[in-house]
Each structure stands twice: as structure tokens, then as C-alpha cells.
Specification:
The protein is α/β, with parallel strands linked by helices and 220 residues long. The protein has 5 helices and 8 strands. It has an 8-stranded mixed β-sheet with strand order 1-2-4-3-5-6-7-8, sandwiched between helices. β7, α4 and β8 form a beta-alpha-beta unit. The longest helix has 17 residues. The radius of gyration is 16 Å and the shape is globular. The protein starts with 10 loop residues before the first strand and ends in an 8-residue tail after the last helix.
Length: 220
């Protein structure tokens, strides 16, 4: 298929991916957009995670309220994306394909990466090759099925947001992992917040905006 252009208004489109078509949602920040595009990765597909997850859409909303265009997409085998679940390996390739499209269509703009849970793991895996201008990791699934000890920390600005009452990801395990890193992120704890930030989504939006605002570029 032909390569679609970056849409002038918010839209859903399909991209060629490593395992078939990928379903992509682009949400525009409006006329005052900054020279940044943020890609937001969703949680574990085998447990119901999609690009429509509330944490993912709230993260994208927080970015847009700061003037940043956002891109969400479904990993292979999720929603209308073709292929099948690949434990993070193929999903990292999916993210690289979406990032390549963004950079082709938006040359000269900074690329930011964000991910929630499994999406945080995938985006961290891709970071060394994509060199994002900023990394946002929400509830990275340390201590679950994926090897965080093998990950290379981002060299640019990096924010980790972690709920203190997370029932799926052990907040203490996240802190212990961060303690092992030579390059440490800014850790933003969320008191009384569970994994999916139920009744805390507006607090999450505020925490994201406060944490990333110092790294915003000037308007084009």
C-alpha cells in the first residue's frame, strides 16, 4: 500500500508494519502545536490492552494539552492490526515502523516515546535505536515476564510514573530497578494509585504535564 500522509486533522489510518497492517490513530493538538510528535504505546494485548486503554488515551490527552501531536497504535494482533502477539520482540519492531513513518512525515520534529505497562517495556526496548527526545514510562512491568536488566536506559530526559498502590507491578521492584541504573529517570510516585489509575486519571494527567513541561521546545 502507499504510505499515508500525516493527517491534517485527527484520524485513524493503516500503515505497513513488519507483520502486516498496523492500525494507527493520530490526534492533532491544533494550530498551536509544538514541533514534537509523541507516540504512546499500550499495555499487554493478551490481557485486553489496546490503544483505547484509558491510561493511554489520558496520556495522549495530556500531551495534546501541552501542544503535542500524538500517535497511538495497536500492536500486532490487536484491534485491526495484523499479525500475532510476539512477547515484545515483534512489538518493538512495530514501534520502530510507526516511528519511521512519523519521522518521514514530520522531518525536523522531535520524537517523544511513552508507554504504559507492557508498552513501557516495548518503548524502552526501542529507545536505543530511536533516540527519543523524551521518554515517559508509566508503571513499567518490572518483575513480571520481561527482562529489565538487559535494557539500556535512555540518554535523554526520562520520566517514570508509578502508582504506590499498584496491584500488578510492585512499586518497590520499580524503585529497586531504578537504583541499579547508571542513568536514572525522574521518578514520580502516585500515592494511592493502582495499576490502571482508577479514580486517579485526572491526577495522572496533571502529573504527566508537570513532569514533562520543563522539556517542551519553543513553538515553531
Amino acid at each position: 500500500m502507499s504510505v499515508p500522509a500525516f493527517p491534517d486533522a485527527s484520524a485513524t489510518l493503516s500503515l505497513d508494519g513488519p507483520a502486516g497492517l498496523l492500525e494507527v490513530a493520530v490526534d492533532r493538538a491544533g494550530d498551536a502545536a509544538l514541533p514534537v510528535v509523541a507516540i504512546v504505546c499500550h499495555p499487554l494485548p493478551t490481557e485486553g490492552g489496546t490503544m483505547h486503554n484509558k491510561v493511554v488515551t489520558m496520556t495522549a490527552r495530556a500531551f495534546r494539552e501541552l501542544g503535542i501531536d500524538t500517535v497511538r497504535f495497536n500492536f500486532r494482533g490487536t484491534g485491526a492490526s495484523q499479525g500475532s502477539f510476539d512477547q515484545g520482540d515483534g512489538e518493538t519492531d512495530d514501534l520502530r515502523a510507526v516511528a519511521a513513518w512519523v519521522r518521514l512525515q514530520r522531518p525536523g520534529m522531535a520524537l517523544w516515546l511513552a508507554g504504559f505497562s507492557f508498552g513501557a517495556y516495548v518503548s524502552l526496548r526501542a529507545a536505543p535505536s530511536l533516540h527519543p527526545g523524551l521518554m515517559l514510562s508509566i508503571a513499567p512491568p518490572v518483575g513480571r515476564s520481561w527482562d529489565f536488566s538487559a535494557l539500556t536506559p535512555p540518554t535523554g530526559p526520562w520520566v517514570v510514573i508509578q502508582g504506590d498502590a499498584d496491584e500488578i507491578v510492585d512499586a518497590n521492584a520499580v524503585r529497586a530497578w531504578i537504583d541499579t541504573l547508571a542513568i536514572k529517570p525522574v521518578l514520580v510516585p502516585m500515592p494511592d494509585a493502582g495499576h490502571f489509575f482508577h479514580r486517579k486519571l485526572l491526577d495522572l494527567r496533571g502529573a504527566i504535564k508537570h513532569a514533562v513541561r520543563p522539556y517542551l521546545p519553543a513553538a515553531a
